[in-house]
Amino acid sequence: MLEVTVVNIIAVLIAFYGCWQNRRQPLLIPCLLLAIFFSLRYNYTMDYSAYSRMFFYFNIYDNIDYAPQYRSVEIGWKILNRLCRPMGFQFLVALTTFFQFGTFYWFVNRFVRKKWRWIMLFFYVVDPWYMLMGLSAMRQTVAMSLIMLSVPSILKKKVLTAGLFWLLAFSFHKSAIIALPFIFAGYLNPARWKAVTVTEIVIIALSMFAPLAIVTLVSNSIDLGGMEKYSIYLTHGKAAQLETGFGFLFRMIFVGYLLSKLRYLNRQMYTFDSIYVLNLAFIFLGLVGVYFGRLGWYFTWIGMPALLIFVEKWRASLVGRTIFILYCLIEVWTYFRFFTDFFPDGFLHYQSIITN
Q1: Contact indicator for 258, 306 with CB cutoff of 8 Å
Q2: Can you give the pTM of this predicted structure?
Q3: What is the DSSP string of 144-195?
Q4: Residues 290-301: pLDDT tens digits?
């Protein structure tokens, strides 16, 4: 944890300095630093060893589908593993890591004003559900990164192009099914903010009061859809505890504030905000089935620029700035709990291929 925290702090400080000095690319060096550091990881993150075994079985047979325990794995991931066979598993780790940070770098440069980009990096490294869990869930991270790359097409209402990105993402992880509606998000109209607000409140309320019914429905759909491997994620998990108590109550206040600002946003920020707030529904469902928490990642990753509502001039008030400061403190608190209380086996002790 110490090595990771030190590198994270250095990266954020470099980004802050670059933004303060109005450097042309303030995130370039921090993102390169993080990408290199985590590309060198060895048996670090919860799923590292599982992906290592998967890589081995995909590549010892001529037929990529021969390994019976991995026949249900998505074809895109199988092909990527086979393409990386000559270079070895660590090359696959490095490739997906650079793709993750490269997509984040591109996304923030595209949609965030230069002076606020360091804030995006701060949230990316301190919120466990962004960078750290992304490093662990390699297949889903590739899928989410592809959805992020489709955002310009989404905003320009290029449904066909966005759909192709979605199909590619789905070929890496079936959880991308939840991002299918994003293809049409460009048609969201800020003039319809009341209708969108009511719709999102209804969705959040349903997830609050009927989570067991929804989880049961999804579980049955998974069984019928040949995705039985995901059924193990439909049980309560300790990761959901990070979203309980005061932190959860505060997140509701946080999302409520974002909803209250919908009417003041331009179309681009309106789209990001509308996507981001729906993650609250998946937090409720995640308390019953942890898989829903993973589905919610798509909403936070794509909606990340919505966090700037608290620091930009969209009628940001003293209340909003206070909420934002408290949110930052809770994120830091969650960061350390993530290491010490919830996933010490996978994340507490950083290891590198250089030292192993």
Answers
A1: yes
A2: 0.85
A3: HHHHHHTHHHHHTT-HHHHHHHHHHHHTT-GGGGGGGGGGGGGG--GGGHHH
A4: 667 778 889 989
